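Bench notes, afternoon.
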Amino acid sequence: MKRAFAVSIILALCALAPATLRAQAKFGGQVSWADDQDIGLGARVVASTPGALQLPRLDFIGSFDWFFPGGGANYYEVNGNVGYRISGVTGIAPYVGGGLNIAHRSNGTSNTELGLNLLGGLRFGIGPVVKGFSEVRLELSGGEQFVVTFGVLF
């Protein structure tokens, strides 16, 4: 049941970039460190809105992280954010934004909470197709932690 819930949330995040918008979507993996839950591994999708929508600098960012807190506990997060790309920087693409966070903890009992995110990050080119990124995220309620994430997008 828990995995079905997580899969449904991930699919809902992917729906942020419907095909009718013809958004440019990039997918990738990430490694996260959180001050409460230690190290996490996850996946990310970033969908850029086309310029025709008059929103040329907005990205929809969906992510899923599975953390390894130890002690037999399970913890994962699903995030749906909107990022605003800051222009005027060559070679890197800084962004700021915010969104929603769903955090699920279980250690004998289960607890799922909804919260808000504030974030900022950088995207940079690694090669002609691969983009790297780093991001910091402050979770207000929900996960209630500070998270640093690094990863790649294809």
